[in-house]
Design goal:
The protein has helices at residues 8-29, 34-52, 65-85, 93-111. It is mostly helical and 155 residues long. Helix 1 packs antiparallel against helix 2 and helix 1 packs antiparallel against helix 4 (93-111). The longest helix has 22 residues, at 8-29.
C-alpha cells in the first residue's frame, strides 16, 4: 500500500509549480506550434484547478480535494497520451517533455492524501471506570474504630 505522505498544502505548491513548468516548458525546451499550444492548455487547466480547489492554497474553493485528484488523474492520462493523439511523436523534445511531466504528476498524485486521512486526529478509546476511585486519607490523629463498632454477640 502506498503511503500518502503529501498533504494539501504541499500538493498545492507542486500544482502551481507544475502549471508554471507546463506554461514555460515549451519555450525552454525549444518546441512550438501545436505541441506548445497543448502544453499551454494543460498548464492553464492545472493552474485553474489549483485556484478553485478547496485547499489551503485554493483561492475560490469550489472543488473538493477528492474531485481535484480525479480531474488531475484525467489530466495525467491526457498528458501521457498527448504525443500520440496530437500526432507529434516525431522529434525528441516534445514527446519526452509530455511523458516526463505526466510521470512526475502521476507520482505526485500517487503520494497525495486526497481524502485528508493524514490530517485527521486519531480516534481515542473510551475509558470505562473499573471501580470507585480510592479516596486519599485525611491527615490527622489516628481514629480508633473499635470504640464505635458494635460488639459481637455471644453464642
Amino acid at each position: 500500500m502506498i503511503h500518502r505522505s503529501i498533504g494539501a498544502v504541499s500538493h498545492g505548491i507542486l500544482d502551481y509549480a507544475l502549471a508554471i513548468l507546463l506554461i514555460i516548458g515549451p519555450s525552454v525546451a525549444g518546441f512550438g506550434g501545436v505541441k506548445a499550444t497543448w502544453a499551454y492548455i494543460f498548464g492553464g487547466l492545472l493552474f485553474a484547478m489549483a485556484l478553485v480547489t478547496r485547499s489551503p492554497l485554493g483561492i475560490v474553493k469550489i472543488v473538493g480535494l477528492a474531485l481535484h485528484g480525479f480531474v488531475e488523474l484525467l489530466l495525467i492520462a491526457c498528458l501521457i497520451a498527448a504525443p500520440w493523439f496530437g500526432n507529434f511523436t516525431s522529434g525528441v523534445t516534445s514527446p519526452r517533455f509530455y511523458w516526463m511531466i505526466g510521470l512526475l504528476m502521476l507520482v505526485l498524485w500517487a503520494l497525495t492524501d486526497f481524502r485528508g486521512v493524514r490530517d485527521r486526529v486519531p480516534a481515542t478509546t473510551v475509558a470505562t471506570p473499573l471501580a470507585e476511585p480510592v479516596k486519599a486519607p485525611v491527615a490527622g490523629p489516628p481514629v480508633d474504630d473499635r470504640a464505635t463498632s458494635p460488639k459481637p454477640k455471644a453464642p
